[in-house]
């Protein structure tokens, strides 16, 4: 889990709804190295990889949002498939 | 002193240097161990960074309104800082680390080929002044000059004129490329630059053309420039749409991902539009790119084991292994082959016409040898291909040889 500061700095977050009823929020790691310029699409790709590979077959829905208040939905997954 | 810009922020050099000095002194006092203290070298690096940063900020504030809360960072390169200071790049990196530990540098971002961006503590920058206080300008100059005279020893390396001229760290002009030329010139014409003496060498020359004329021509050039930029943007977008439909029909991309891909395409495929060309030339270039994409599509269809990486990698400018850049070689090879085949067909055709004429058949049967040669020469010169001309000469020698022998 990312420390609090990194959570605030993250550009996107992913909420995963598991089959067992649990839900969990993951924050993106947008930098390729410590001092790199943040790259939102890199963070999204990493979250997508996590959802599709690490938690493969364990979740029903996963949604990636912008990490802001009232942030937009960027990507949505359902039953192992990306919807948009 | 006159200033016409109402909201132009101005950072006082002397004040910021004084803050830097006191900040480092305070930090050193807090440290008990000698090794933890910042030495004169670290101090010099900090002062160099501050000086160049203020210069950037003051220049930027003249061209665009800076946010009071969120100031842009200091954009530079480690190498150029090292050159300015007369040390190695590694020393600068080490010094930056120490300054980060001391809290002098609060944030640093690496921008790859665009260098680095550094944010220094707002405590050092102090409160920002507004340039609009033109009424008490005289007193302000007095304060500044007295400060410089008083602290001359401390500030010696900071106002060194040679370093100012050699400084190549300023990227402000790059970041404000959207500002119109008009605003630049007005700014220059109205500022007296008394306080901003450090920046005098960086100024642009005010043109001597009458103002009405320049306004009209500037508007026209701006309009043409904007049209051209929108045209180039459209080229990138069209290319991506075509590629997406041909090579990645099943994939989905969200907005940030698409933006990243477009940036990669702009950088690698269109070379950041460094080369200047007319609309027609760009359209021809676009056609060539479409042909290359078609080649890749055909290559993918040929064998199910063939694959290409995801677009953010495929169009990445550093991808030399399996990037889109490789298709340029394919394209060249294909075009060369096409030309060779075309040449062969033309040569065969001319040979056939020569033979027909010798037999007294065909449409050239009444023409003399010279006339037929001239017709062929004209036809071949249309292609502007030296290889074709040489091949024709060789074929001519072979075709006409038996004729000479019989005579």
Question: Mind explaining what this structure looks like?
Answer:
Chain A has 84 residues and is an alpha+beta fold. Chain A has one domain (4-82). Helix content of chain A is 25%, strand content 33%. Chain A contains two helices and five strands. Chain A has helices at residues 4-9, 40-54; strands at residues 12-18, 23-27, 59-66, 73-78, 81-82. Chain B is mainly alpha-helical. A three-stranded antiparallel sheet of chain B has the order 2-4-3. In chain B, strands 1-5 form a two-stranded antiparallel sheet. In chain B, a hairpin with a 5-residue loop joins strand 3 and strand 4 (116-120). In chain B, helix 2 packs across helix 4 and helix 13 (279-302) packs across helix 15. The chains are: A alpha+beta (84), B mainly alpha (407).
Rg of chain B from C-alpha positions? 33 Å
Mean pLDDT level of chain A = 93
Radius of gyration of chain A, in Å, reads 12 Å
Shape of chain B: elongated
Oligomeric state, counting identical vs distinct chains? heterodimer
Q: What are the segments of chain B in which pLDDT stays under 50 over at least 5 consecutive residues?
A: 1-6, 129-209
User: Quick one: how many beta strands of chain B?
Assistant: 5
Mean pLDDT score of chain B: 78
The amount of beta strand of chain A, in percent, is 25-35%
In terms of DSSP E residues, the strand content of chain B is: under 5%
Strand and helix order of chain A: HEEHEEE
Q: N-to-C SSE series of chain B?
A: EHHEHHEEHEHHHHHHHHHHHH
Structural class given helices, strands, pairing of chain A?
A: alpha+beta
Strand order of the largest sheet of chain A: 2-1-3-4-5
Give the helix proportion of chain A (percent range). Answer: 25-40%
- Identify the overall geometry of chain A: globular
What's the short story on this structure?
The complex is a heterodimer of chains A (84) and B (407). With 84 residues, chain A is α+β, with helices and mostly antiparallel strands.
